Amino acid sequence: EAHLVESGGGLVQPGGSLRLSCEASGFTFSTAWMIWVRQAPGKGLEWLASIKEDGSEKYYVDSVKGRFTISRDNAKNSLYGQMNNLRAEDTAVYYCARDMGRFTLDVWGQGTMVTVSS
Amino acid sequence: HSALTQPPSASGSPGQSVTVSCTGTSSDVGYYNSVSWYQQHPGKAPKLIIYEVNKRPSGVPDRFSGSKSGNTASLTVSGLQAEDEADYYCCSFGGQKIFGGGTKLTVL
Fold first, then answer.
1. Chain A partners within 8 Å of B36 (Cβ)
2. What are the pLDDT digits (tens) for A65-95?
3. For residues B75 and B94, what is the distance between their CA atoms, to the nearest angstrom?
4. Separation of alpha carbons B50 and A19, rounded Å
5. Least buried of A35, A39, B41, B97, by fewest C-beta within 10 Å?
6. Is pLDDT of B106 > 80?
7. Which of A101, A104, A37 is CA-nearest to residue A64?
8. Is the Cβ pair B36, A110 closer than 8 Å?
9. Span A3-18, mean pLDDT?
C-alpha cells in the first residue's frame, strides 16, 4: 500500500528556515510526480509546488517563489521542501502528495505542522 | 487568478442527496477534464474521492459521483450517511489556485 510520511515541522521564528521531508513507501517513488500542499488553520488547501519524477521540472505558486524550494532524492524515496524567510502567514499543516497526473492526488501524507511565531 | 468557487456550506438529511458545485473558468474547469474532489474529516488528511470529473478510486462508495457542465463541476453525494459529514474540496488543473475554497457538508 502506498504511504507517505512527512516530518520536519515545528515552531520557528519569523525570518527563520525549515526543511520538510516526506518519505514514500509502497510504490515506485521515482516514477511519480510529487507535490506539496498546505492548509492554514481553519482554512482551505493551497498548492505550493510540484516536481517531476526525475526532478528536472519544478513549479511553484507565486506566493512562495524564491522562499520555497522543492527537491527529491529518488535513491532515498524522499521529497523535500526547504522553506526560508518564514512569515506568520506560513503557519499551516504541510502535506506531501503523489500526483497521478494533472493534480489527481491519490496518496497523501498525514501532514506536518509548521508554526511561525516569536 | 481566482481560486475555484465553492459554496461554503451544504447540508442534507440521512438518505437524501446533496450536490456541491465548483465554478471555475474556461481556462481550468471548462477546458480540462482534470477535475478531482477530496473529502477531509477534521484533523485528517484529504482523501481523493473523484478524479477526471467522474471517476471513483477503488474503495470509494458509488454514492459519490461527479459531473461537469461548462465551467462548473459538481459532486453529488447520494444516500447521505453520517460519516459523509466532512469538508469537500474541488481541484482542477489549469492555474495556480487549483483548489476550491471548500464546502462543509453537514448531515442533519
1. 103-105
2. 999 999 999 999 999 999 999 999 999 999 9
3. 19
4. 32
5. B41
6. yes
7. A37
8. no
9. 97
Instruction: Transcribe chain B into DSSP letters.
Output: -PPBB--SEEEE-TT--EEEEEE--TTTTTT-S-EEEEEE-TTS--EEEEBTTTB--TTS-TTEEEEEETTEEEEEE-S--GGG-EEEEEEESSSS--BB--EEEEE-
Does position B7 have pLDDT exceeding 90, yes or no? yes
Residue of A46, A61, A108 lying closest to B46 (CB–CB): A108
Q: Choose among A114, A104, A90: nearest CA to A34.
A: A104
- Grid cell, residue A34, equals 510529487
Average pLDDT, chain A: 96
Distance CA A80, CA A109 (A): 13
Say whether A45 and B93 touch across the interface (CB within 8 A): no
Burial class (CB in 10 A: 0-12, 13-18, 19+), A59: middle
pLDDT exceeds cutoff 80 at B104: yes
Q: Do B52 and A46 touch (CB under 8 A)?
A: no
The radius of gyration of chain B from alpha carbons, rounded to an integer in Å, stands at: 13
Cβ pair A110:B91 closer than 8 A: no
Q: How many CA atoms lie within 13 A of A78 on its CB side?
A: 11
Q: Which residue has the cell 485528517?
A: B44
Side chain identity, residue A96? C
pLDDT of residue B95: 80
Rounded to 5 degrees, what are φ and ψ at A5? -130, 115
